[in-house]
């Protein structure tokens, strides 16, 4: 009998100690609630058209320097861009080649590739007049997919400045 009383007291203590003990003075008064205006998305097409479109360069085309040029064109369907890469020719062959369609989501271009040994998503972000090309890493070596498109140890990964 003492054992059942002890278990009952312990169970009662657990039930009451697990209740939320928030004092009323921590509640936000209804007068402090501020309405946040909705973001205007009615003019997204115009903003998007100028967002990524253009030519971007890594290196310098003048002289004998190595360069890679990324050309991004709007496909006029509100979410897709064509991304084409060309580079300096070495022994009559372009060192980097890439021609894919990217989908714009939240200021980032996503390009799904299946050319390498497994599917990899290439991402392009833009800040001011510079784009950055990288890959989403699901596995440790996914970034090497960007080397697949270039010869001689080159890679598409990096920063490119708008011409």
- Beta-strand share of residues: 35-45%
The total beta strand count reads 10
Main sheet summary: 8 strands, antiparallel, barrel
CATH topology name:
Lipocalin
The outline comes out as: elongated
Low-confidence stretches: 13-50
Which key phrases capture this entry?
8-stranded antiparallel barrel, 163 residues, two-stranded antiparallel ribbon, elongated, alpha+beta, Lipocalin
Commentary on this structure:
The protein is an alpha+beta fold and about 160 residues long. It has one domain: Lipocalin, CATH 2.40.128. The protein has helices spanning about 1-15, 45-50, and strands at about 55-60, 65-75, 80-85, 90, 95, 100-105, 110-115, 120-125, 130-135, 160. The longest helix has 16 residues, at about 1-15.
